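#structure-requests
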Amino acid sequence: MTVTEDAPAAAPAALEPPAATPAPTGLAAILGSGDHKVVGRLWIVASLFHLLLAGLAALAVAAEKIDLSGVDLVDADWLGPLYAYRSIAAAFLFLLPLTIGVATAIVPLQVGASTIAFPRAATAAVWTYLLSGGLLVGAFAIEGGPFGTDVDGVRLFVAAFALVLIAQVVAWVCIATTVLSLRVPGLSMVRVPLFAWSNLVAATVWLITLPVLAGITALAYLDVRYGGGQGIFGGGQATLYPRIAWAFGTPAVYAFAIPALGVVGTVLPVFAQTRHQQHRIAQGLIGAFGALSVGAWAVPGYGSEPYHWLYEGPWVVVSFAIVLPVLGLLGLWGLTAMKGKLSLGSPLLFGVAALLMLVVGLLAGAVQAIEPLETMVDGDGATPLYGTSWSASVAAYIGLATAIALLGAVVFWAPKLVGRLFPESATRAIALVLLAGTVLWAFPELIAGLMGQPALPLAEVVDNVSTIEGLNLATLLGGVVLALGLAGLLALFVAAARSDELPGDDPWSGHTLEWATSSPPPVGNFASLPEITSEAPLYDARHRSEKGSA
């Protein structure tokens, strides 16, 4: 066999690598991003926009209640829809989305994950919320929604509200799956940080509650679409608001506050400079609080005499029992503060303010569940507190306490959200302003409820009119104080985001894994992670280093 060896052909010229495609910036980066930090910021910014709209509606309703003789500032046809919009937007366009936003941005970092579970679903959820939230506002603008007069607007409201709920269900699935499935090795469930744990509990509660609310909303849509004036399931659009309002009445309203407990449980040990005492017991107490807040089965009806069949029933039991887990947490947090060296940083001040208001709201909710008390209302017999502005005050205490805690969470995790810190002295002042505004807003409503003022502004007040009007004026002043505090905090947020001063990766000397990466974190979150042997791995690493250098 002849072997012929030809000279090798000349090597082809090396191909130049293609020019690197620059990473998208600006709006393109936001629209196309699957990064959980970007998605979380979208939830947060949009929720604050809806807070602005809901706050304006709340101030309008509060201003109208200064004069109970008749509608003066707001047209009679708009008063009911504004009241409904205030409550629905505050709960489902602001409070829950703000919770989801902070959790989407921070929970993957706390459990050491490189991303959130189902990142495309998380992105789809936020865009569904943005679009459906706009449709919901539009439905109210054309006199739709509960108490609305435009039938097409009511139908649009029902469809948009259902989409809002679907978006939040998907977002909670992503958050819960992240905690359950994407934890870094060594971070067992009993070591999960309290904020991530509280969001797992909250996700469980809302994945039970929101589908029920969506189902009720679907029945409401059938009523207003096909049932005519009375509806095929009873009541038509006249019962639309009561069918929704149970979701932010006691005890279901307490579910909004579950992540607030996680915020306090995460922030306090950092500023006490010690580990959280009895971390596992704290997890159990937060879980018990969440279990008791699944309260749809214990919500009284919106008919007359709710105490008639509920006295010593489930509602009373839940209303008192749910105070106990919070009292247990207060004991653990007091023990943690005494074990350490407490410094009152601005995030902790937000947490303390939120905790005070939450306790007052829980106690007021328990009092509300007692068999009808003798009130200041003229006439025979006692007037139930349930259905008066006392009930509205309980919801206000819980909702505002949760909002203060979550805004404190934004302050605490600002280095991870925007790579900047809020100015300490100004932020502390804002926390005190929000505390004062909450007291001024909610406490007069308790007293007005004792005097018989109904929760709905459309209902007539026949006794103690001048005194109730004075209390309503105090409530309006509280709303103004809250608005000033929120405006100040937003101004600080904008100033911090535009500042050139960098806070460093771990400005608070944090205990959990989100502080083991840069501020703000890169895509993928972590280059390396410390050894995890407890619920506070960075605290452990810091103290091992101190002992080694001693």
